[in-house]
From TrEMBL:
UniProt keyword Transferase, yes or no: yes
GO molecular function ontology, one term from the record: kinase activity
Domain GAF: residue ranges: 42-190, 211-359
The species this protein was found in: Kitasatospora aburaviensis
Protein name: GAF domain-containing sensor histidine kinase
Domain Histidine kinase/HSP90-like ATPase: 471-561
SUPFAM superfamilies (UniProt xref): ATPase domain of HSP90 chaperone/DNA topoisomerase II/histidine kinase, GAF domain-like
PANTHER family associated with the record: NITRATE/NITRITE SENSOR PROTEIN NARX-RELATED, OXYGEN SENSOR HISTIDINE KINASE RESPONSE REGULATOR DOST
Keyword Manganese assigned: no
């Protein structure tokens, strides 16, 4: 009997030693997991380490970490351990926080279940999902705010999760909250550094006299890089039309968006332009509120549109950023720096406008000087020369020579008329405040640069501001805008040349590109409109494919119909 009692005591001692060793090993594993999680500074890697450590600590076959989205009701991210890529693909989309997973969102307290399917909130599993029985869920808090939840299922060996497992995972969740907070702070510091660097780069571009398109592209590109967006667009409001036009497009199918005009209502950029505050969506491609314009956002999910406004409240444009579907939504921490960036973009637009005003003023002053010099110097000299030749013709006896001199006098008279008409055109241009045909054509050509991705080459000849009637000039501007829009959308060209001529009896507009040519089965409504405009004015419209390739559009109408 004493020997039996001794054996029992030794077995009990051995069991307690084994339990102490197991506790020691588990504590060591927990410490190693905490250190492993705390060493990481990249938030994605931190989350991945947390899930992996949790599965190892409690011998769970499956583990997951669900990150709660900005709405506080659904999951915006879901990281898993224990499932292969093939199994994940067969199961389908990640859960969004309904059923048992949502129970921890609504009641952020540890939850242990012997059979998860028996819980009232369980909705069952989708097809191809592995069967899971035991369950342990623990919330992860960051600064007293629930960041997400750890979900563990199916303990190895068919056992249930016990109180020790719950305590270990709860301890890991505390350490995870600290690690997540550190990773967030580091990520935010890195992001702020990148914003400051980009701001300095943009400031240098502004002060060095960079063009509007260059500065806007720099702003959109840097905002896209720093936020990890897959698409960036800059849209500007079209005065008096209730629409916005995409002036700059980066990423995705730029050809489907560049130059596109969409109404304020039904578009994310339009909503930001109308409200003057940032507007977000979780599904840019599928949001039923954003149905204006053609389909152009396939595969895109989270998006934000930030207005580019001046101090006096005027909206000069909108910066749109979008990510692929399934990626995280834009948070307030990301939108805050974007607002500062938007102020710089508005400054770029305003500086570009002021620079254009200065250049316009300088050009008008130069035109006035040229007109004055032509009137005071050139015309007087030509008139004096004509008078001299006319006097000389009286003393020339040879009939042929006399006729030539008189023809030269007539040519000088005609030249004086042309110069006077030019002077009138220059001053009429100034009086109209930039509303002459030449200035309108220049403006339309400059606006097409953003959609084309390069500046078109422009050549103008003749007395366009004086000889071309207003009605014809309006048609010319409309035809040019349509031709350049077609080139931007369909031609995929690397060069576009615009030639506008007033020959005295006709005005001829030619637009030629080196693109892919006109498709046989393409839409013809735009070209039909150009032909109808020409027919209305008694002119002709021709579309040809020159020998080297591309398209040549020729539109010619008489000056007097």
């Amino acid at each position: 009997m004493p020997q039996l009692r001794l054996d029992e005591l030794l077995e009990e001692l051995q069991a307690r030693i084994d339990a102490a060793r197991g506790t020691r090993d588990r504590v060591h594993s927990l410490l190693e997991a905490v250190l492993s999680v705390g060493r990481e500074l990249d938030l994605t890697q931190v989350l991945r380490r947390i899930v992996e450590a949790a599965a190892v600590l409690v011998d769970a076959r499956y583990a997951a970490l669900g990150v709660i989205g900005p709405d506080g009701e659904t999951l915006s991210q879901f990281l898993t351990v224990g499932l292969s890529e093939e199994e994940i693909a067969r199961i389908g989309p990640y859960p969004t926080g309904r059923g048992l997973l949502g129970e921890l969102i609504r009641h952020p307290e540890p939850l242990r279940l012997e059979d998860l399917s028996a819980h009232p909130s369980s909705f069952g599993c989708p097809a191809h999902h592995p069967v899971m029985r035991s369950f342990l869920g623990v919330p992860v808090r960051v600064r007293e705010e629930v960041f997400g939840n750890l979900y563990l299922t199916d303990k190895q060996g068919g056992e249930e999760f016990d109180a020790d497992d719950e305590a270990v995972i709860s301890t890991l969740a505390v350490a995870a909250g600290v690690a997540i907070d550190n990773a967030r702070l580091y990520e935010e510091a890195q992001r702020q550094q990148r914003w400051l660097s980009a701001s300095g780069e943009i400031t240098r571009a502004l002060l060095s006299g960079g063009s509007r398109s260059e500065v806007l592209e720099l702003i959109a590109q840097r905002a896209r890089e720093i936020t990890g967006a897959d698409l960036a667009d800059v849209s500007v409001p079209v005065d008096g039309t209730g629409t916005v036009r995409v002036e700059l497009a980066l990423g995705g199918d730029t050809g489907a968006r560049a130059g596109l005009v969409v109404p304020l209502e039904g578009s994310l950029s339009g909503a930001a332009c109308a409200s003057g505050v940032p507007v977000t969506t979780a599904d840019l491609a599928g949001d039923p509120r954003l149905s204006a314009g053609p389909s152009r956002f396939a595969g895109l999910g989270p998006a934000v549109a930030v207005p580019l406004g001046r101090a006096e409240g005027q909206i000069d444009g909108v910066l749109l950023l979008a990510r692929e579907a399934g990626r995280p939504e834009f948070t307030d921490r990301e939108i805050g720096p974007l607002l500062g960036f938007a102020d710089q973009a508005a400054l770029a637009l305003e500086l570009a406008e002021r620079r254009r005003d200065v250049e316009q003023l300088a050009m008008l002053e130069d035109r006035d000087r040229i007109a004055r010099d032509l009137h005071d110097l050139a015309i007087q000299r030509l008139f004096a020369t004509g008078m001299t030749l006319q006097s000389a013709a009286r003393v020339i006896d040879h009939p042929g020579a006399s006729d030539r001199v008189l023809r030269a006098v007539g040519d000088l008279d005609e030249t004086i008329k042309i110069i006077r008409s030019t002077i009138f055109g220059l001053r009429a241009r100034e009086e109209k405040g930039g509303q002459g045909l030449r200035s309108r054509v220049v403006r339309v050509t400059e606006e097409a640069q953003a959609a084309l991705g390069f500046p078109p080459r422009l050549s103008m000849e003749g007395l366009l501001d004086t000889d071309v009637p207003t009605e014809v000039a309006d048609h010319v501007v409309a035809v040019l805008g349509e031709a350049l829009s077609n080139a931007a959308r369909h031609a995929r060209a690397g060069r576009v040349e615009v030639v506008l001529q007033a020959t005295g009896s006709r005005v001829v507009l030619t637009v030629q590109d080196d693109g892919v040519g006109t498709p046989e089965q393409g839409r013809r409504s735009g070209l039909r409109n150009l032909a109808e405009r020409a027919e209305t004015l008694g002119g002709v419209f021709e579309l040809a494919s020159p020998e080297p390739g591309g398209t040549r559009l020729s539109w010619s109408v008489p000056l007097q119909h």
